[in-house]
Design brief:
The complex is a heterodimer of chains A (about 800) and B (about 375). The longest helix of chain A has 19 residues. Chain A contains 21 helices and 38 strands. In chain A, the strands form 10 sheets. Chain A has a 7-stranded mixed sheet. In chain A, strands 3, 4, 5, 6, 7 and 10 form a 6-stranded antiparallel sheet that branches. In chain A, helix 11 crosses helix 13. Chain A starts with a strand and ends with a helix. Chain B has about 375 residues and is of the alpha+beta class. Chain B folds into 2 domains: about 110 residues; about 240 residues, Bira Bifunctional Protein, Domain 2 (BirA Bifunctional Protein, domain 2, 2-Layer Sandwich). Helix content of chain B is about 45%, strand content about 20%. Chain B has a 7-stranded mixed sheet, sandwiched between helices. Chain B has a two-stranded antiparallel sheet with strand order 2-3. In chain B, helix 1 packs antiparallel against helix 2. Classes of the chains: A alpha+beta (about 800), B alpha+beta (about 375). At the A-B interface, helix 8, helix 11, helix 13, helix 14 and strand 26 of A face helix 5, strand 1, strand 2, strand 4 and strand 5 of B.
């Protein structure tokens, strides 16, 4: 909210308090001032000038040569290009040497005529043209006829003012008014308050003499007061009022509307003025709108209303939407003579809903929805009546008419204990100091006992209802800086990550150590991103939970799959000059139990990795695309680091499990041969094509399932006491025999032949010259070891023969002789 | 042939052989400087020649047995002396030739040590998760636990239980992505305050932090994101004071931003804390003297905090007359940006490997 320093200083003594000092005090008390800036950057030597004569320029059709009285001995000759210039006008006149926001004015010759200054437009003197009526922004800015010739324009228009821009928290709606700010500033700066609070008790309610009748037919209007005035002479409000409105960012319109706005800024109470001659039967009814009821509002729009909307109507028809905007049918016009002023309280939530539904956000609405001070309802009405009398020649008809559904709220009493306040703040303030703070704020204290106070809070501070609110006032006014820094005194607690949290942290560290780069992607995407995944029509992955009101198509639903996000990262990097990379993300996917959504979805913590493009170039290594075994190697190292190396196995995938993977180059990862925890594989060629990232290997794991597999306590193995024997075998087997099958058979045979096989692994696979068509040579390294003795050659050879026999029976394997090996 | 002549003859032979051998050795040594390999082969041949069993000295030795007994010792001395000298000189020559041969080999074997090493590929942890883990570690060290909760939240926990009823203006502070009337993407991690209290009641003290993603209807720009992270903190116990909040956050600020950090609380408003505060730290860029980063204030706002509102405590099952607590919420994106000098929040979600790979060399 924009606040005029000059206007505020009328209601609180700011003598010697600079705008910046005021701003600092407000900010440190929680009323954040975002900026402090002069209303007009620089304006010097601009005075009121009266155009005396105005003649055509001898050398230019569009220019005029004027003589202007600026209160000096001689008239100035000024060349002017504005179309609306005419003798008798009073206009802002920049003298030679004047400083305007747009630059300095010097003496200049315009088409052969010397110009001793410049006649100015609103824009040129820095007025807020966006809030001025268009007529006043075109051509010269015309000053009223009583503007004193020769007077400095800056103070005359309040252009020497300073504007504070406030960013208010929603609880401090009291500061949406100069009255509230004046109270606040007075309390903070300990300065005298000068806001004139009318004596409400002395006002005689003479409802009988008023021509207006009020009926409240909805509980959402606790109070409605009205005052009829007559004899309105329309036209603009005085210059000072227009300037104050402009300074605060409100558009001047005419004297009646300006007065209601002026009082709203002053009191925080929105007022509305109806043309009383349009209020049929002089009756104002506050009610809920009827379904389908329509009203053309002041902005010329026809609004469709519903039963939730509170309307102001006369005996026959709606004439305004309560708290939001008036109706066109009862608008103040130039011919309006009788006006009924409305000052009321409406249900904040209802006003808020209505404004949101209609897409309106008026100044009035913002104040109503945050709650208004019930005391201000009357105060503001009386102030507006007074201003209309003074400025518009109005005369009251009868007194204030008041309809209320509840008694005027009394200032609430809030219990307060100085000891508890100190306890909650961690301070050691004296009770007298706290009492002093309440006094500064205008709260009154009744001491029931030393430790039990009752604090009477004025109705303007509706944000204060509980003791904690009062404690904040104490802390805030005293200053948060004086709160010491301590640590909680309670028992010591142990801070530890849970197993799931440790798994994620460990995984990040291990995989970063293994060369992968962690990424962090958005979880909102578009269902079309799934098209690359070759999913079945009824695939659960297609159930992305949509947002009700997305901000963009790109981010309209919650992801069910990690691949599209990672693929986007790959595409981005490939298009920015990188040849490839290995990336992973730990994040959630969101799987609804059903759509439309009824309850919270499953949020499943996943690990997903993508190896795309080429590996980074290394010394003496040719550039090479990532392949399945690169990924598998990393995953094996990771699983081993989790103690799952021996328990995990990779088995060929079923096409259904992961249609985005190449069916012949993908595996499921199982733990203990039963629980599937993840998949890994090269992307399916169709997926690759649709993602547009070239070949890539993708893996994903369910971290929750993986966590369930993690072992508990671990103990080191005793070191073997007897030496191990290493032997290699190379055999020819049919192509389709997998490494896992071969090794499993070996382990089985070895166990039967004497339990001495410690380890066996494939170290070479060869297909080519010397190996018959349809076969491959597999070289396996065996390690034999016993806990009890040093092994003899006979023992290991016996086991080796058993393995070869088993292989031969199962796969028709033949030992690859030395002669054949020589053929390589 | 007299005995005497024979003796003299043999002595002359010994002297001649010795002189020839030494000459040859000198030659070999001289040659070693230019061709150590050849020299060491010649040296070996020399050893066989002069010190071997078939060499000329051995021959003379055998002839000496023919001499008369009384002649032998004298000639024996000459022979021993010659053998000792040759042995000795051979040892020295061998050392020298081998030394030269080794240096020659080492020269030949030199490699370009400026070529890159075969580093095992090193990856990186994302700056955001780095910062989150760092903050977690600080609070773990202070005895906090880490809790996590759903991102798809109910209106009830995200708003109602936090004193933000429907149609309340405070809802404007956070524009919300709704999924249904009742379900939404959480706008803050604060719903975890209530969930944690409900789970833990009547246990005290509660000391938790809750990191996680949150969502708001903000247009993405350099400082705003429709999705970002928060770390919520909550402490509930008997006798918790606002000064404890300040002290705890001061510890945090010093651990994360440096030992000389200060924190400043400024009054503010959150519907679920009372009193409420914005919390600033000394500008990490200028140290407080004022710069562009802190808009010349010397302070950076990094989190919001306050004492848990009595209605929130009561609603979650902790009697506000008995218990009090503090809560805070901070944005790891902002902290990562300040810490690592990243000036656009979108960079954290762009995942440009040129940026991410830099984090493999951050200790």
């Amino acid at each position: 909210m924009r606040v005029s320093y000059q206007w505020l200083s009328e209601y609180v003594d700011l003598d010697g308090v600079s705008p910046q000092a005021l701003a600092d005090a407000l900010t440190s008390a929680g009323i954040e001032v975002e900026s402090v800036s002069p209303r007009v950057e620089r304006l010097e030597r601009v005075v009121v000038g009266r155009v005396v004569t105005c003649d055509a320029h001898p050398n230019a059709d569009r220019l005029k040569v004027c003589t202007v009285d600026v209160g000096q001995d001689t008239l100035l000759t000024i060349v002017c290009g504005a179309p609306n210039v005419a003798p008798g006008q009073r206009v802002p006149t920049a003298l030679v040497g004047a400083q305007l926001p747009g630059g300095r004015i010097g003496q200049a010759k315009l088409r052969g005529v010397e110009s001793q200054g410049m006649l100015c437009s609103a824009q040129e003197i820095g007025l807020e043209v966006r809030w001025l009526p268009k007529a006043q922004t075109e051509g010269l800015y015309l000053l009223p006829d009583d503007a004193p010739v020769g007077a400095d324009v800056a103070p005359l228009l309040g252009l020497d003012d300073v504007i504070l821009d406030l960013s208010l928290t929603p609880n401090r709606s009291d500061c949406l008014s100069l009255r509230g700010l004046a109270y606040e500033a007075a309390a903070l700066l300990e300065r005298p308050l000068r806001f004139p609070e009318p004596d409400l008790g002395s006002e005689v309610l003479d409802a009988g003499a008023s021509p207006v009748r009020i009926e409240l037919r909805t509980p959402r209007c606790p109070r409605y007061e009205a005052q009829v005035v007559t004899g309105i002479a329309g036209g603009p409000s005085p210059l000072w009022m227009q300037m104050r409105l402009l300074a605060m960012g409100v558009r001047p319109i005419d004297v009646v509307v300006d007065v209601t706005n002026y009082v709203m800024l002053e009191w925080g109470q929105p007022l509305h003025a109806f043309d009383f001659d349009e209020v049929r039967q002089g009756t104002i009814v506050v009610r809920q709108a009827q379904p389908g009821e329509r009203l053309v509002t002041l902005d010329g729009q026809e609004r469709l209303l519903d039963e939730d909307v509170i309307v102001i109507s006369d005996a026959q028809r709606a004439i305004g939407i309560a708290g939001v905007m008036g109706g066109e049918n009862s608008e103040i016009t130039a011919s309006t003579r009788r006006v009924v002023l409305e000052s009321a309280a409406f249900d904040p939530a209802s006003v808020r809903r209505t404004g949101q539904k209609l897409g309106l956000r008026s100044e009035a609405q913002q104040r109503f929805e945050k709650g208004i001070d019930p005391v201000a309802v009357r105060g503001a009405l009386l102030r507006a009546r007074q201003l209309l009398q003074e400025l518009a020649g109005a005369a009251p008809v009868g007194g204030v008419v008041c309809a209320e559904q509840e008694r005027r709220p009394q200032p609430p009493m809030v219990d307060f204990s100085p000891q508890r306040a100190n306890q909650l703040l961690g301070t050691d303030l004296a009770a007298t100091e706290m009492a002093q703070i309440f006094r500064r704020l205008g709260f009154s204290v009744e001491r029931v006992s030393e430790e039990k106070w009752q604090v009477r809070v004025p109705t303007r501070r509706a944000d204060i209802r509980l003791e904690a609110d009062l404690v904040e006032e104490i802390g805030r006014i005293h200053g948060y800086d004086d709160i010491p820094a301590t640590l909680p005194l309670g028992p010591t607690t142990v801070g530890m990550r849970t197993q799931a949290q440790r798994l994620r942290k460990w995984t990040r560290e291990i995989l970063a150590g293994l060369g992968m780069n962690e990424v962090f992607t958005y979880t909102l995407g578009h269902p079309d991103q799934l098209n690359a995944l070759r999913l079945a029509e009824d695939s659960p992955y297609r159930k992305m939970i949509p947002l009700l009101r997305p901000m963009s198509d790109e981010r309209m639903a919650l992801r069910t799959h990690m691949l599209p996000g990672l693929a986007q990262v790959a595409a981005y990097n490939l298009s920015h000059g990188m040849v490839g990379g290995s990336i992973f993300e730990i994040g959630r996917v969101y799987w609804p139990l059903e759509l439309p959504l009824r309850e919270q979805p499953q949020e499943v913590e996943q690990w997903a990795g993508l190896w795309f493009g080429e590996q980074p170039v290394r010394l003496w290594q040719a550039a090479r695309a990532y392949d399945f075994y690169d990924a598998k190697g990393v995953l094996e190292a990771w699983l081993t680091s989790l103690g799952l190396g021996m328990r995990a196995d990779f088995v060929p995938i079923q096409d259904r499990d992961a249609p985005w993977l190449h069916p012949g180059r993908a595996a499921c990862v199982r733990i203990d041969r039963e629980l599937q925890v993840g998949t890994v594989g090269e992307l399916h060629p169709e997926t690759v094509q649709r993602l547009g990232i070239g070949g890539a290997v993708y893996a994903e794991f369910d971290l929750h399932k993986l966590e369930a597999c993690l072992g508990g306590a671990w103990k080191a193995q005793t070191l073997p006491r007897y030496p191990a024997v290493r032997r290699d075998l190379a055999v020819l087997v049919p192509q389709e025999v997998s490494s896992a099958q071969l090794l499993a058979k070996a382990a089985q045979a070895a166990e039967q032949a004497g339990d001495i096989l410690q380890d066996c692994r494939v170290f070479d696979v060869y297909v080519g010259p010397g190996v018959p068509e349809g076969q491959k040579s597999m070289a396996v390294a065996f390690t034999y070891q016993s806990d009890e003795r040093t092994l003899t050659d006979e023992e290991t050879e016996a086991v080796e023969r058993a393995i070869l026999r088993a292989w031969e029976q199962a796969f028709g394997a033949r030992l690859r002789g030395e002669r054949e090996a020589g053929a390589e | 042939m007299t005995f005497g002549m024979n003796t003299e003859q043999l002595q002359a032979d010994i002297d001649n052989i010795r002189a020839a051998a030494l000459r040859e050795l000198e030659e070999i040594e001289n040659e070693a400087a230019s061709g150590a390999d050849h020299a060491s082969r010649r040296l070996e041949a020399w050893r066989v020649q002069y010190l071997g069993k078939k060499g000329p000295l051995a021959q003379v030795s055998r002839q000496m047995k023919e001499l008369p007994k009384e002649e032998r010792p004298r000639l024996g001395q000459v022979m021993n002396e010659a053998q000792r000298v040759l042995q000795d000189r051979f040892g020295r020559a061998k050392q020298r030739v081998e030394g030269l041969a080794l240096s020659a080999r080492l020269r030949q074997e030199h490699i370009d040590v400026t070529l890159p090493g075969r580093t095992p590929a090193r990856g990186s942890i994302h700056p955001l998760t780095r910062v989150i883990a760092e903050i977690e570690d600080v609070f773990l060290g202070m005895g906090f636990s880490i809790v996590e909760g759903p991102e798809v939240e109910t209106d009830h926990y995200n708003f109602e239980m936090l004193n933000i009823p429907k149609d309340h203006p405070a809802r404007d502070m956070q524009d919300t992505f709704y999924l249904t009337e009742e379900l939404l993407l959480r706008t803050q991690t604060s719903p975890m305050q209530v969930r944690t209290m409900e789970n833990m009641r009547p246990f005290a003290p509660i000391k938790v932090i809750c990191p996680g993603r949150v969502y708001r209807r903000d247009e993405d720009d350099a400082t705003h994101s429709h999705a970002f992270n928060q770390i919520e903190g909550l402490v509930v116990d008997r006798g918790i004071r606002m000064s404890d909040l300040k002290g705890t956050l001061e510890q945090f600020a010093r651990a994360v931003f440096g030992p000389n950090q200060e924190v400043r609380l400024r009054p503010s408003f959150f519907p679920f804390t009372e009193p409420s505060a914005e919390v600033d730290v000394r500008c990490t860029n200028c140290g407080g003297s004022g710069c562009r980063v802190c808009k010349y204030t010397g302070w950076l706002e990094i989190l919001g905090a306050g004492m848990v509102h009595p209605q929130v405590l009561d609603g979650a099952g902790y009697d506000s007359r008995e218990f009090s607590g503090f809560a805070f919420g901070m944005g790891p994106e902002r902290i990562a940006m300040l810490k690592y000098g990243i000036d656009d929040i979108r960079l954290l979600y762009q995942n440009d490997l040129r940026l991410l790979r830099q984090f493999s060399s951050v200790f």
